[in-house]
Design goal:
Distance between the termini: 20 Å
Shape: globular
CATH architecture: Roll
Structural class: alpha+beta
Number of strands: 9
Order of helices and strands: EHEEEEHEEEE
CATH topology: 2,3-Dihydroxybiphenyl 1,2-Dioxygenase, domain 1
CATH class: Alpha Beta
């Protein structure tokens, strides 16, 4: 069944040129492949697809999380800020917020959105490591 196959996050955007600037220039992703369906960016040992859609930004939940680890977390938060990316905060059931970063005692996390409103996240611990 499907559990035997790799999964790929898919993000809808309204403006591919603006998305390319954000994902390549601001976040530093490299292009793995591209075609009429969109652009696949390399992320660790996998990737994610960015494609054009009229429904871009309609998801109000986290679309993609990047596991940056403890050692790189502060540097990644600083890099986001250098590129003018604002961190998001919200009511969380556990933990406390400090300067846009949530610490729940197990991990630190930060959320931000792309120009189309897709919500992205960086965190210090992989949820896959806890399964």
């Amino acid at each position: 069944m499907l559990g035997e196959f790799p999964a790929m996050p898919v993000l809808a955007v309204r403006d591919m040129d603006r998305a390319r600037k954000f994902y390549q220039d601001d976040l530093g992703f490299s292009v793995l492949s591209e075609g009429p369906e969109g652009v696949v960016y390399r992320a660790g040992s996998g990737g994610f697809l960015v494609y054009s859609s009229q429904y871009a930004g309609t998801n109000q939940a986290t679309a993609v999380s990047f596991m940056v680890g403890d050692a790189g977390f502060a540097d990644e938060v600083a890099a986001l800020r250098r590129h003018g990316i604002e961190l998001m905060t919200f009511d969380a059931p556990e933990g406390s917020w400090t300067d846009g970063v949530l610490d729940d005692g197990r991990m630190r996390s930060a959320w931000f959105s792309d120009p189309d409103g897709n919500i992205l996240n960086i965190e210090t611990m992989s949820i896959m490591a806890t399964a």
